[in-house]
Amino acid sequence: MTSGRRRAELVVDEERDDRLDARTTGDERPMLVGFLRAQRTTLMLKCAGLETELARRSVPPSTLSLLGLVRHLADVERRWFRHVLSGQAVPPLFGSATHPDAANITVEARRNRTILGAALEEAGLVNYPTEWWHWSYGDRYWALATGASHALYAAAE
User: Fold this and answer.
1) CA nearest to 10, candidates 19, 2, 18
2) CA–CA gap between residue 141 and residue 157 (Å, rounded)
3) pLDDT (0 to 100) of residue 139
4) Whole-angstrom Cα Rg for the chain
5) pLDDT score for 97
6) What is the pLDDT of residues 114-135, one digit of tens each?
7) In this structure, are residues 10 and 46 in contact, taking their beta carbons and an 8 Å threshold?
8) Long-range pairs of 5-9 with CB within 8 A, sequence gap ≥ 24
9) Is the dihedral of CA 10, 13, 16, 20 positive or negative?
């Protein structure tokens, strides 16, 4: 279990909780770093003291465990920094059925992905190379992938 910890010990007093002190205006980098720090701190807070058996257990109907969530977040963070922002072609850290070339999906799922992908590509969307379900249109990644000189839209200020 969680070594006898009670729910109250998992919640941080609002006056002591600095996770959401990140800047929301100003330079983009400090804002992104602050948001990333808050996300990492929250995950560490929720997983602190968890024994291996609980870290690997999922709660139905989900099949995702906390360990799986940590792996997912590591892969997402890596993809955003190395692939989306730096343009590097990086494979996923962990094998997953979400990868477009996943070997562990059914023939029907593969056929459905092919049909959906063809329709989305025909409409001008681009696929993130590590997630079959993640498509983009008009943003910075789309501009990078299509060779467009600029994005069609950006984040609202």
Assistant:
1) 2
2) 19
3) 86
4) 19
5) 67
6) 899 899 999 999 988 777 778 8
7) yes
8) 5/49
9) positive
Place of tokens 């984040």: 155
* Paired residues of 135 in beta bridges: 127
Q: Rounded mean pLDDT of 24-52? A: 80
3-state secondary structure 32-53: HHHHHHHHHHHHHHHHCCCCHH
Q: For the chain, what is the mean pLDDT?
A: 77
Backbone dihedral region for residue 3 (phi beyond 0: left; psi -120 to 50: alpha; all else: beta): left
pTM greater than the 0.70 cutoff:
no
3-state class (DSSP) for residue 35: helix
65 DSSP β-pair partners: 58
- The number of beta carbons lying within 10 Å of the beta carbon of residue 119 is 10
Q: How many CB atoms lie within 10 A of CB 31?
A: 14
**CA 35 vs CA 54, 75, 124: distances in Å:** 27, 17, 31
Residues contacting residue 68 through CB under 8 Å, at least 6 positions apart? 58
Residue 14: other Cβ atoms inside 10 A: 7
**b/e 2-11 (16+ beta carbons within 10 angstroms → b):** eeeeeeeeee
